[in-house]
Every structure is written in C-alpha cells, then in structure tokens.
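Re: that chain you flagged

S.,

Sorry for the slow reply, it's been a week of failed gels. I finally had a moment to sit down with the sequence you sent. For the record, here it is as I used it:
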Amino acid sequence: KRMLEEYGAGVAEHRSFGAGGGSQTVLFLHPYMDSVASFLRSKLQALVQQADETAGWAVVRGASLRARCAELILYRAGNNISGDGDGKIGWHTDGVTLVTMAVMLSEEGSFQGGAIRLHAPGHTEYENHTLSKAGDAIAWRGWTDHNVQKIWQGKREVFVSEWWLGPDMTESDVPRHKDLPELTEQALQLDASSPMLHYLHARALCTRLPCLDSPTAQAAEASFLRALEMAPREEKVSK
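Prediction finished late last night. Pasting the structure tokens below so you have them in one place:
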C-alpha cells in the first residue's frame, strides 16, 4: 500500500488480454520494492517455496529464485478497452515464470467479481478461486492458463510477483523480462509434459519470421508440432 501511495506515478501501463476483454492498470515495482519494503522479497520467496512443495509441482527444487517482476494491479468495474466485450481479463499465461503469486490488497466487501480461473491443458473443467479479503493469496505455475473474471462493482487491487531462473528485475532494470530460449529449455526440463511450454519454447526460438537460420527454424517447428500433438485444441496466449 505504501508503494502505491508514494510511487503511484511510477512505471505503469494499461493492458488487456484477448479481443474485447477487460483491462487492468499495472504499476511495476522493480525500482522500489527492495528499498521500500525490503522484507517482502525473502517472505515471498519462502511462500513460493512452500506453495511449490504443497502443490507437488517440484519446479523450484531449492533453486535461488529471482524476481521476474513485481506489480500492483488495479481492476475497476467497467474497465473495458473496446467497450463491447464481457469485461473479463482474457486467458493468458506468464510464460516461463516458475511460480506466480497473487496477494489481495483490497478489503473484504470493497468489490464484487474478479474470481481467478486456472485451466490445465487437456482438462475440460476450470479451477475457480476467489480472493475475497486483504492477505488472501494464490500461486500457480507461470505456464498455467489463467484469467480474471469481470469486476461488477468497486475496485480490486492485487500485488503480483513472478519468480523464475532468469535475470532479476532489479538487475535487468526492465519491468518484465521476456522469455528466452535457454529459460524455456530449463522449464521444459522441469515439466516436459506441458504443451504450453513446448509452444513457448517454439516462440522463444523464433520470435519472428523468417527464423534466424534453418536449424533454429527446424527446432521451433518441432517444438510447436509437439505442443499441437499434445493439446490440439488449446489456444495459446502469453504475456
């Protein structure tokens, strides 16, 4: 809350996921988190480790996690860029982030809606989670598809941090570092059963057409076809 009050004019952007979907206002905290709230990093790392062990994901495995990004995200009732969508934040992933953690900042009763939905490839049902009061938290693997349902009333403020093996947000001095081929390879070693990771690896190898060279193109195509084989009906959207 203090960071939001003191640095509300910091590095911010307005973003949405999916055509006609809702939007969110994001304040990136990489210049401020360690100086304003130095205790947060170690506390969040411990919570992420606990979540990984409790869920049985085994993606952290004692690694020295780095902060990919730290964000204060604001959702308001009626936030919709196009004006004709359903107001929810569209399906997307957080790329090769190992674990994403969201912590509710808003007080209970200050908003309605905003449930978080998680979807695993190959499953027909969604997990629905509600963070209803300040301090409620949820974690997921970065390559898990997720969205946020429409805010019907009030405003919803959430603190989100992503943890990975890539550059730390304070070292790179960018709000959120992009996926890199070496990082998608590392993530695949942790979860080779994820079609999303195979897809993300293909995208990281070949960010635009034509690809860098023939071997890179062949590797990207093989990874994309593997993703398609594993989950032929999945839609792929990532940050």
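What I noticed first: The chain has seven helices and eleven strands.

Talk soon,
D.
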